[in-house]
Amino acid sequence: MTHTGTGIEILDAKLGGGFERPSAILLFSDHPSEKRVFAEHFVMTGLRAGETCLYVDFFRAPLLARRELAKFGEFDESKVVFVDATSAQMLIPSSESYTVRDPNDLDHIMDTVERAIRETKPVRIVIDSMEFLADRFPKDHVFRRWSQLLDVGREAGAITSYLFLNWTYGQAEVERIEHMSDYVVEFQSRMRTGVLQHFLRIRHNRPDGVRTNWIPYTFKELVGLTVYFPRILVTGPFNAGKSTVVRHLCEKTISVDRMGTTVAFDYGNVEVMGLEAEVFGTPGQERFDFIFQIFAREVNGVLLVIDSTRPEDFERGRQMLDLVGRNVPVVVLANKADLAGAVSLDDVRRGLQLARDVPVVPTVATEGRGLREALKLLAELIMG
Known about the structure:
This protein is an alpha/beta fold and 384 residues long. Helix 4 (106-120) packs parallel to helix 6 (139-155). The two termini are 23 Å apart. 31% of the residues lie in helices and 30% in strands. The chain contains 12 helices and 18 strands. It has 2 domains: 2-222, 3-Layer(aba) Sandwich (Rossmann fold), CATH 3.40.50.300; 228-383, Rossmann fold.
């Protein structure tokens, strides 16, 4: 089975290498969201790999679309083919090889797109957006040509991804669209703690297919999309090695300390495998629990650092997990695993009374050993 990557390493790992090819991917939302940025990132990933990509745009002129793609960096313009579906709407001439001449004729529109697919043989196809057709033409006619177009894409060995913001159809029609698709990528934007955040989740439409939780993401110019966790909490009992964990995970850190111990928090940013995370380390003493509870609000996940040579601290570790709550993804770092007297991972699990699905990773924070593995496991738990 051939897989085609999204360009986000940690997401591709979750998908077993990317989306299966050929396939049809529905990029769906019922409210305005950042679907187009995902589609553009998907196309740019293909262009960087030397693939031919086809972009059908009902809302932007090809010149503007190319300019938007340039936000991701340089690309070979000869590898991206546009179906110009906007010039005729604005009554202006087009220089593109594939142009929709009559935007009021559904069969002409779909015939033009299908001809472009057959002649250019793209690896990736983006149709932006199908609601243009849903809003203008009879439902049965749209579904018939929509299904035919997806079959043409599969025959060409391509991944056909199509954006759809539902203004028009009822639940039955939406379910019909989902059943026509091999994957559904659903998008949502919502305000959290005063900041607009963007989320996506992926469902592979087969019994054993991947299903993720809502995954937060962000966009950075010249980089593209990254999975983005705005609040990863690094916590644990006093002197377990939390600050060392933050410093080794993150390229740049800020630490507020006094007399050699953290009295407020550590902060750093980490970027690895297409994952970006804001990491906060909290003090371990009980008198600072008010600080801990502030940072624990709406936390994405927790790295609980335990000194595996001090079983007497396990009770404090249990208290901190109770403060966070049982619904937050947790990975336990059994730190100082290289020292004499370090207990086994099973002893750590029993001492903390952990559920079976909570990973315990042996770490040596002073050397950075095990830290990236722990962060990757936490990311997988958050994504679902």
